[in-house]
Write a structure and sequence with these properties.
By secondary structure, the chain is an alpha+beta fold. It contains 9 helices and 10 strands. Helix 4 runs antiparallel to helix 5. It is globular, with a radius of gyration of 18 Å.
């Protein structure tokens, strides 16, 4: 038990330090708060059903690593200052900083994944970074970071279609597959979205001028059309200037 906890502490420490030091090492902006880490059981029934839930081509953890045990999932929350830049731009147009944060964060997470997997292998464990792609017609990825983070107990889905963690939904998720002997987390039971827990709010829907978000659901084509008008193809008005951006208000 002690060894298992030590290993979790090591993984979390590695991720936290990597993200904290990244801007100084790369002369980049400081746009991230302290990350959250969760552990999904690679054999959890919900993970096994992802090809059914998302699309038949959705990968399973064993597509990347033989006999996988755990998926390490993490959330990188953005700072309030970064979110504020996006709030200051009207309609569904994204701020320059918000657009740049997209590729900067993806780049950082790509490097972090490789380093973390490498360190785990050096410690005698097995680890692999999932390689995934997005089906451009269906607008679905064959490795859904949100669904994996959900199984890892990191958050619950809001009506903005975002996964809301205890540090909010304004940020990004990523994951790696491994065989480390740690106890898996389980999906959260309480709803983190105010509309889902108390039937109030809907601020995310009012923020989405394109009409992609409604109480009835999310229209990913309308969203994509709107996002693609901005550099880097992002918008994020359903992710900023909302009560669940930095906390879990529904709880
Ligand atoms: C393709 C894609 C897009 C496409 C299509 C969007 C989509 N939702 O599918 C477009 C370009 C439109 C897009 C837009 C955006 N995206 Co995008 N996108 C992706 C990508 C690559 C794959 C998404 C996917 O495959 N979806 C599959 C479908 C089936 O899932 P879904 O539409 O989300 O619907 C599911 C959930 O709603 C869920 N669900 C809803 N309610 C409930 C309730 C319960 C109980 C359960 C279990 C499930 C559940 O079930 C649905 C069906 O499976 C992921 C990265 C990745 N590899 O995962 C990022 C990702 C989803 N995007 C992200 C972001 C931030 C955005 C934008 C805000 C753009 C921006 N950066 O400014 C917008 C927000 C749109 C929105 N409100 O969802 C983040 C989300 C972070 C978060 N907190 O949730 C992700 C995870 C990227 C990342 N690495 O963090 N995106
Ligand atoms: S803005 Fe309000 S209604 Fe929308 S997801 Fe967040 S808490 Fe739920
Ligand atoms: S759902 Fe899409 S179009 Fe609507 S606010 Fe969110 S990112 Fe923008």
């Amino acid at each position: 038990m002690e060894k298992k906890n030590t290993l979790k502490e090591w993984v979390e420490g590695f991720i936290v330090k990597y993200i904290e030091e990244y801007p100084d090492r790369n002369f980049g902006p400081k746009i991230w708060r302290t990350p959250l880490v969760g552990y999904a059981d690679a054999n959890h029934p919900y993970i096994r059903r992802l090809p059914e839930i998302v699309m038949p081509e959705h990968s399973l953890p064993e597509d990347f690593l033989e006999n996988p045990r755990i998926i390490i999932s993490y959330f990188v929350p953005f700072t309030k200052e970064l979110a504020q830049t996006n709030v200051q731009v009207a309609g569904n147009a994204a701020s320059k900083e918000w657009s740049e944060a997209y590729s900067y964060t993806n780049h950082m997470m790509g490097e972090l994944n490789e380093q973390l997997a490498e360190e785990l292998r050096n410690m005698g464990y097995r680890a692999a970074v999932p390689k995934w792609e997005t089906n451009r017609t269906l607008l679905k990825s064959n490795w859904s970071q949100r669904h994996i983070a959900y199984v890892a107990g990191l958050g619950t889905f809001g009506i903005n279609n975002m996964l809301i963690s205890r540090k909010g939904c304004c940020g990004r998720y990523n994951s790696i597959v491994t065989d480390i002997p740690v106890e898996a987390d389980v999906p959260l039971e309480e709803e983190n979205c105010l509309y889902k827990s108390r039937g109030i709010c809907k601020k995310c829907i009012r923020n989405c001028f394109s009409g992609a978000l409604t109480v009835e659901g999310f229209d990913r084509r309308k969203c994509r059309e709107t996002c693609s008008k901005n550099p880097e193809g992002v918008c994020g008005k359903c992710d900023t200037n909302i009560p669940c951006a930095f906390t879990a208000p529904g709880k």
